[in-house]
Amino acid sequence: MNARAPKGTADMLPDVARAWEHMQRTAQRLFARYGYEPVYTPIFEHTEVFTRGIGEATDIVSKEMYTFEDKGGRSITLRPEGTASVVRATLEHNLVANGQSAKLYYAGPMFRYERPQKGRMRQFWQIGAEALGMAEPGIDAEVIVMLMRYFEELGIPRQNMRLLINTMGDENCRPAYRDKIAGFIREHSTALCEECNRRAETNPLRAFDCKNPGCKDVMSEAPLLRDELCDDCAAHYAAVKSSLDDLAISYIEDPSLVRGLDYYTRTVFEVQVDAGLGSQNAIGGGGRYDRLMEQYGGPATPGLGFALGFERTLLALEAAGVAILGHPVAEVYVARVDAALGGAVFALVQELRDAGIATETDYQGRSLKSQFKQADRLGARAVVIVGPDELAAGEVTMRDMTTKDESRIPLGEIAARLKQLLG
Ligand code: AMP
Question: What gap in Å lies between CA 322 and CA 318, rounded to an integer?
C-alpha cells in the first residue's frame, strides 16, 4: 500500500493544527463583532451547485473539481470553495426571505485538483464570510475592513499587505465589455498565448489573469471596464471607495483583478502579501455576487463575501515572524521517583486536571531524568515530584522549572500552589 498522504494534501500535525484552531478562534471572536454567525454546509454537493454557480468555463469547474458518481448514480463534487454552498443553503432554508438578511461564516477544507506548489494544495483550508440580502455599498466596505482587520489581528503587519480592488460591472454593462475584450483578444491573437485565444470564446476577462508576461503586456493595453461601467455600477464603485477612504483603509485599484469565478458582479478584492509566498501571493479575496441566488432558481438576492486560505496565511505569518506555533502541551508534569507510586500519581494527576491545570505524567516507566526531559519537551512550568518519603509525610516536591526552586508542599495544598504559580 502507499502509506503517504495523497499528492497536494498535507497532514496537519499538532503545531499546525493548533495554528488552524487559533485562526478559527480569532475569526469567531472578530466576525461576531460584525454580526456574523457560524454555518456548516456539507463537504460535498450536487455537482450543479458548482457548475451553475462558479461557471462552466472557469478553471475551477473545467479542470479542478473532484467529481464522482455516488452509489445512487448522482454526480457529486467535493466543494472547491464555500460561497456556492452557503448561497445554496441560504436559499434552501429561506434565510433571507421577506427582506431578511444573513451574515454567515464558515471554516473547513476545500478541494481543487491543481498543480501543487508552495501555497497551492489540492486539499486546503479556508475561512470565509458571506453577507446576504444587502445591496448597499457600505457593506462591501465593511466586509473588506473585516478581512483586513482579521489579518491584522492575527499579526500580519498592515504594511506587509496590499489590498487590491476592482469592479466587474453587472449584467447591464459587462456583456458589452466582454464582447469588446473578446474582440481585443482576436485582434491581438498572434501576440497572446493559446490559452488566452481560447478564452476569447469562453471567458475573455480571464485573459487579464494570464501569468504569461507577453500576455500581461498585451492585456495592459486592453480597454478597461472601469471606463465602460453603467451609471449604477459606477456609483456603487465610487461609494465603496469613499467608504474605504472614510475608514482610512488604503487600497490599490487594479483593473486587471478579475478573480476566477463567474459569479462576481461589481466589487471584487484581493489581499496579497509578498514576503514568504512566491507566486501564490493572494492570502484572501472575494467580491459581490448579486446574481448567484438566481442561478439556483431563487429570487434576486444581493450578496458578497470573502474567503481566506489557511496555508498561505500561515506562510505570511511565519514570514512576519509571528509565532503562533509551539505552545506548551502541559503546564505541570507529575514525575514519580519509582514506578510503584503509580496509584498515588494517577490520583494526583486527575486532581490537578479537575482543578483546570493541563497536567501530564509518565506512562512508559521512564527514569526520573528522562521524566524531567519529557517535562521540558512538553513546556511544563512546574514539575511535581512524587517520592516515597514525601508521600509518607503527606507531601510532594514542587519544582519551578523557570527558577529551579524546589519546595515541599502538603498534598492538600498542591493544586492551589500550582495555580498560584501558573497565574
Ligand atoms: P478563492 O476561493 O480562489 O478566491 O481563494 C481564496 C483564498 O483561498 C486564496 O486567497 C488562497 O489563500 C486560498 N486558496 C485558494 N486556492 C488554494 C489552493 N489550491 N491551495 C491553498 N490555498 C488556496
Answer: 6
Q: What stretches of 2-101 show up as alpha helix (H) in DSSP?
A: 14-33, 47-54, 59, 83-92
**Angle, CA 239 vertex, CA 236 and CA 242 arms, to 5°:** 155
Pairing of strands 252-253, 161-167: parallel
**Three state DSSP letters for 19-39:** HHHHHHHHHHHHHHHCCCEEC
Q: Does the pTM exceed 0.85?
A: yes
Residue 176: count other Cβ atoms within 10 Å of its Cβ. 12
Q: What is the SS3 string spanning 393-423?
A: CCEEEEEECCCCCEEEEEHHHHHHHHHHHHC
Q: Give the burial class of 249: count Cβ atoms within 10 A of its Cβ; 0-12 exposed, 13-18 middle, 19 or more buried.
A: middle
Give the H/E segment covering residue 189.
none
The last residue of one of the domains, among 295, 319, 343, is 319
Residue nearest (by alpha carbon) to ligand 1 atom 14: 309
Kindly report the CATH number assigned to the domain that includes residue 394.
3.40.50.800
Cell numbers linked to 80: 472547491
Using pLDDT thresholds of 50, 70 and 90, give the confidence band for residue 278.
Answer: confident
Residues 364 and 417 both lie in one domain: yes
Nearest atom (ligand 1) to Cα of 310: 12
- Mean pLDDT for 318-340 is 86
- In whole angstroms, what is the distance from residue 29 CA to residue 33 CA? 7
CATH of the domain at 281: 3.30.930.10
The residue out of 287, 319, 351 marking a domain boundary is: 319
**Same domain for 79 and 156?**
yes
Return the CA Rg of the chain.
Answer: 27
Task: Enumerate residues 6+ apart whose C-beta is below 8 A from 33.
Answer: none
Q: What pLDDT does 325 receive?
A: 63
Rounded to the nearest angstrom, the distance between the alpha carbon of 243 and the centre of ligand 1 is 26
User: Among the atoms of ligand 1, which is closest to the Cα of residue 126?
Assistant: 8
Q: Which residue range forms the structural domain that includes residue 413?
A: 332-422
Domain count, the chain: 2
CA–CA gap between residue 267 and residue 304 (Å, rounded): 9
Cα 415 to Cα 348: distance, rounded to the nearest angstrom? 9
Ligand 1, residues at Cβ distance < 6 Å: 81, 112, 114, 119-121, 124, 126, 260, 282-285, 307-309, 311-312
